Amino acid sequence: MGQVAPTTQHLKEPAFLLIVLTGIDGSGKTTAAEATVAAARQAGTEARLFRNYAGRRRMSLLGARLGVQLPPRAADVIESAVRTFNVLNSHRRARKFHTLVVMDRHLHCQLALRGMHGLPRGRFIPWLIRTLPAPDLVIYLDIEPREAHARILARATDAERLEDLVSLRDAYRSLPEFSGFTHIPAGGSTGEVLSLVQAAISGAGRQRKECGTAGPRRPCPRPPDRRRAGPRLPILHPAGPHPPAPCPVPSGPDTPRAGGALPRPAPGSCRCPWPCPGTSGPWS
Question: For residue 184, what is the domain's CATH number?
């Protein structure tokens, strides 16, 4: 994928953006997160990547070596403890940064794993999701389980059953939070997926700028739902009277879709962490 020469106009005083990547195993979460942060840094924007693993791969490999498989409930206790620690630590460290923060996995992933194993959601993790700072964007990398299974077999670092991937996909879709995720097709090349992720983050950056970022935050009016990307998470703006009209958003569909084009924002209105207005970046 070609790189775009960085500009500085839209990089001045960049808005803080918290982006979370989710999806079934083999969807490319880690690859997309690393590529997104690398592209932002190459464009001159400070960006940080935090990984919220649960230790499933290590436990799976250790169990296979010892010939022991933990019961789902026991495995969930360990995974939940590890992931919760990593998520809390990531949010603590993210407070030190004021530009782009990308998290590879989050607590939503643990809820999906519980659903895959038929375990209850519990109360603590849903409460923690509501209590922690809300991400500006939760991206769900959407891929067919069969293709994800082929990727897992190709990398040969762990093992997942196809039926488990199907169950995990269904568990994600059954999450109450799933309607607020932004869905991105993840079956293409790394460059194609990165372009779609960049476009989604750019849209979140514009909305954050338009709604404001300073002071106590509360939900502002949600923009209209997008057809193929699902409704967005509520955007936050400073406390005080609401603007007379909903937060301005481009009149056309501005979320990424396979084979589609994105409207060009007005000059100076973009807060994305890489060049887009007036360049050959993700905007058409």
Answer: 3.40.50.300
For the ranges 28-42, 57-71, 110-124, 155-169, which has the lowest average pLDDT? 57-71
Asked whether residue 271 is domain-assigned, the answer is no
The answer to whether 141 and 22 are in contact (CB under 8 A) is: yes
Would the pTM of this model clear 0.90, i.e. be above it? no
Beta bridge pairs of residue 50: 103
pLDDT tens digit sequence for 221-244: 444 443 344 444 443 433 344 333
Q: Quick check: is 59 in a domain?
A: yes
What does the alpha-carbon distance between residue 151 and residue 82 come to, in Å, rounded to a whole number?
25
Tens digit of each residue's pLDDT (9 = 90 or more) over 96-142: 888 899 999 999 999 999 999 999 999 999 999 999 999 999 999 99
Query: Virtual CA dihedral for 142, 175, 235, 21, nearest 10 degrees?
Result: -40
Q: Kindly report the CA angle at 130 between 99 and 180, in degrees rounded to 5?
A: 75
Full domain range(s) for residue 46: 9-238
Nearest in space to 203 (alpha carbons), one of 189, 182, 180 = 182
Read off the DSSP letter of residue 237. E
